[in-house]
Write a structure and sequence with these properties.
The chain is of the alpha/beta class. The protein contains 17 helices and ten strands.
Length: 420
């Protein structure tokens, strides 16, 4: 029986296993940290689903880091140790995101003399028609397009994905991975990993998808320039739904902060965000824009893909820690990740009745015993490997056993390092 006319999908029979996908929105390093915490909670609370064995992964901006890592067999627990923990395993340091874009500065500085001559010539040629400010505006071409070097991100991920058992090539992945960026010159969304965009390295696609204008220069790929994939859509969930996904889990880490509500409930002493200055005002503005756009998208998905279950997980709008957190402190990273784990568990628990039937259609069950355990923390999710599911194939069981062994060896190595 035909399904959504937009996707061309057909309704899956009961005997056919559901196709499961994951869509991760952007949000800078802060958003990636939240997504790791949320995924740890989902991994810990959902039975019958393995986030390293999904059919389709879609990542936008910082979500592309996490999606690509999962598609490469890096579990949420391993991501925690790589991206968040301050121990010996930690590899993603703040300095990777904060290296000045010296090459961009040099390119712009090199054209300053030419621009100055051009501006002076324009002013002298027609001094009464052209104001001084209009002539000086010519010098705006010398302003760098980004402050930090995103090439270091490509280099870090390139090394990470070249490790044994991983790949930096879309075509060699066992699962579908799509990373969305925006073509700067056309404004159109571009999906890397699709048939005509799968020959570039995964790390390069992530660099392009995460190139937030103003912070990072546009990324050149094949003569075209690309910037942050969130400029058009927040989630780009339709990329996964068009692949025939039956169950799509979505994580959006950025929501507008309700300062008034948080103040009334004693969760913050800041009631007016304007007191926080321009950075706070811009952060709230950006969050409000992308979140309202995402709500429109979610309504559209429900209409266009009526046969698919699309489940969204987001932070609490009164969470001051999420809004004001600093990513440059390891303690803050760990605190934020733990808060994301806790919030996602609360979300699952509150929606358990509604979610249970929708998840059951796809062979997934909620671990109510774990959700009812108020003492369960993120440390439990990091140290408790998932049991093998009865319905897993032999190859999946082997891969899961290998991952569980890796967890054990990781913890042994950390214990030995601490003992030394």
């Amino acid at each position: 029986m035909p399904g959504s006319k937009a996707s061309g999908r057909t309704r899956r029979t009961r005997k056919q296993p559901s196709r499961v996908g994951l869509a991760l929105a952007g949000g800078g390093p802060l958003g990636g940290i939240y997504e790791v915490g949320a995924l740890l909670a989902l991994t810990d609370s959902l039975e019958g689903i393995d986030f390293g064995e999904l059919d389709v992964y879609v990542g936008v901006s910082s979500g592309s880091f996490v999606a690509a890592a999962l598609a490469n067999g890096i579990s949420p627990a391993q991501m925690y140790r790589l991206f968040i923990s301050e121990g010996a395993d930690a590899a993603l340091t703040p300095e990777i995101f904060l290296r000045p874009a010296f090459s961009e500065f040099a390119r712009r500085a090199a054209i300053v003399p030419w621009l100055a001559v051009r501006a002076a010539t324009q002013a002298l040629r027609d001094p009464f028609r052209r104001g001084m400010m209009e002539s000086l505006a010519t010098l705006s071409h010398a302003v760098p397009t980004g402050m930090f070097d995103n090439g270091s991100i490509d280099g870090f991920l390139g090394r990470l994905f070249k490790a044994p058992g991983r790949t930096n090539d879309f075509r060699k992945l066992e699962r579908k991975l799509y990373i969305v960026a925006t073509n700067l010159d056309t404004g159109a969304s571009v999906t890397f990993g699709s048939a005509d965009r799968d020959r570039i390295p995964i790390s390069k696609a992530i660099e392009a998808s995460a190139a937030l204008p103003g912070l990072f220069p546009p990324v050149r790929i094949g003569g075209e320039y690309f910037v942050d994939g969130a400029l058009n859509k927040t989630l780009h969930a339709s990329v996964a739904l068009d692949e025939g996904v039956d169950l799509l889990l979505c994580v959006n880490p950025l929501v507008p902060f309700d300062a008034s509500g948080a103040s009334r409930n004693g969760r913050t002493t800041i009631e007016k965000l304007s007191h926080g200055g321009l950075p706070v005002v811009l952060s709230q503005t950006f969050r409000a824009i992308i979140h309202s756009r995402m709500k429109v998208g979610m309504d559209k998905y429900r209409r266009q893909y009526p046969d698919a279950d699309v489940l969204l997980f987001e932070p609490d709008r009164e969470d001051a820690d999420m809004f004001f957190a600093s990513i440059f402190s390891y303690a803050q990273r760990k605190h934020l990740c733990a808060a994301a784990y806790r919030k996602t568990r609360e979300n699952l628990h509150a929606r358990a009745a509604a979610l249970a039937s929708r998840l059951a259609r796809h062979g997934v069950t909620l671990r109510i015993d774990r959700l009812d355990d108020g003492k369960r923390t993120i440390d439990d999710a990091l140290t408790d490997p998932r049991p093998l599911n009865v319905g897993q194939s032999r190859s999946t069981r082997v891969r899961q056993t290998t991952r569980d062994l890796a967890y054990t060896l990781d913890h042994l190595e950390r214990w030995l390092a601490a003992a030394r």
